[in-house]
Amino acid sequence: MDDDQRQDHFGKPRISPGEYNGVRIVDGKRVYGREVEASSLAYPFRGSKPFFDIDAYMVEHAKFDGTISPPHRLEVFERGDAVGVLLYNRDKKCVIAVRQFRLPTLHKELNAPKIANGEDAVQGNGWIVETVAGMIKAGEDPVTTVIRETYEETGYVIENPEPVATFFSSPGGASELIHLYFAEVTNTDHKGPGGGTENEDIQILEIRLADLQHGIRSREIIDPKLVIAAYYLQARLELRFDPREQLEPDAESERFRLEAGPGCEIAFKTGDILDVQGVDVWLNPENRYMMMARIFDKNISASIRWGGARKFADGSVAEDTIANELRLKMVGLSETRELVETDPGALRQSNGVRRLLHVPLAVPEGEWGAVKGFKVEPDAIKKYMAMVLEEIDNGNSSHTRWLARMKDKWRGSRGDCTSVLVPLMGAGAGNVKTSDSVRSILEGCHDYFSQIKETTIKAIYILVLHDIDLKIAEEEVKKKQQFVRQVSS
């Protein structure tokens, strides 16, 4: 590559043949760009000036095993460096972003952006929501560029943007470095119309923080600058972003039949546990001390505790029914490794729950008086799942539950409990992966059903709250072809 080509039209140095810390550039040349003969460009672009450059190199480099790689061709997409900035209007408590047409996104299978003011400016892909952004001109520093671009695109005046991160846009093929900033603005900082220069078509958006979170969760926001900056804003404002989308009750899911369980199916219940109706037996994954979560916590134990409580007319708790009975069951015991059953309390009337089994899954970590948390082993999930199924089958025939079955019949219910609701055991505070939880549940089912000839259990429902977890759970069930087979979708 000639010396006069060592700096591109963005003012950015190019790679030249030579030695670079274990890398040897054998040769290099421009294969596409402004310096390439225009007549070599395909019609109808012949005679036009390309904006981007592509350089091709023959490269040798040191390998991790200590040898040198053979010469091989690598191409670098050159387009200069860029800036991006997330604007937060503290008066309106919203993010200022832009929407514009981006040709490379046109045919990607992505969600059309629908997050600004509840409506689409343009339907379909190609138009995306992103931060204010722009290319750094030759001789210009990133801060100057970001101040200029902010005013051009949004009309806001900023002075001292905060650096967020500097990163390569695609280091496997492009040299572009992006300098990302954050700036807080007020209504009085809005001095101009924005909308970009005469060759740009930009829509200015005011995105509420809740809509920003939803856009990230639903993958409607596909600009990496906006995603990175949103998490920076989350930390700055001490917000909580959850990338998962909570499922609606009884969202569509797949059903499977257990090979070892005659007539028994596995399916999914989705959404909040208190929206589940008509499942006979509920499992409550607990710790060995059988100490339920606080009634205002956000987990399965707290939901069951609140749902089963007797309440005043205003909805406040009159009697902590399930937790009180659980404490009585544990009198004289510091911990247990056995299933503990309590009455479902108000859940019997509100959700049709007939039996409530508490599973002592979580083991405390740390010394007594200084417990740091709880741990759940996948093998324990497997063991207790088999124990639960045995308890349900035995309860449908044992003399000890004869009176309970008669009471169920008097209430209008069938005598046998034929369905069980199984949360993703250990997948919360127990830090068990969703896939490991589902796998252990399936293995526990297989271990039990493979040892019996018949069962009264007809359906096992795995409770899933979020969209990502449902996808993982369904894929994990499909992997267990020796245990299950799909019967519907």
Structure description:
The chain has 489 residues and is of the alpha+beta class. Strands 12, 13, 14, 17, 18, 19, 20, 21 and 22 form a nine-stranded mixed beta sheet that branches. Strands 5, 6, 7, 8, 9, 10 and 11 form a seven-stranded mixed beta sheet that branches. It has a four-stranded antiparallel beta sheet with strand order 1-2-3-4, with no helix packed on it. The protein has helices spanning 142-154, 209-217, 224-237, 300-308, 321-329, 347-351, 378-395, 402-410, 434-449, 467-479, and strands spanning 18-20, 23-32, 53-61, 72-78, 82-89, 94-101, 127-130, 132-135, 162-168, 177-185, 203-208, 255-258, 265-270, 281-287, 310-311, 317-319, 340-342, 355-365, 373-375, 419-423, 459-464, 484-488. It is elongated. α7 (378-395) crosses α9 (434-449) and α9 (434-449) crosses α10. The protein has three domains: 3-78, no CATH class; 82-237, Nucleoside Triphosphate Pyrophosphohydrolase (Alpha-Beta Complex), CATH 3.90.79.10; 255-488, Leucine Aminopeptidase, subunit E, domain 1, CATH 3.40.220. The protein has ten helices and 22 strands.
Keywords, separated by commas or semicolons:
489 residues; alpha+beta; Nucleoside Triphosphate Pyrophosphohydrolase; Leucine Aminopeptidase, subunit E, domain 1; 3 domains; nine-stranded mixed sheet; seven-stranded mixed sheet; 10 helices; 24% helix; disordered N terminus
Short description:
This protein has 489 residues and is of the alpha+beta class.
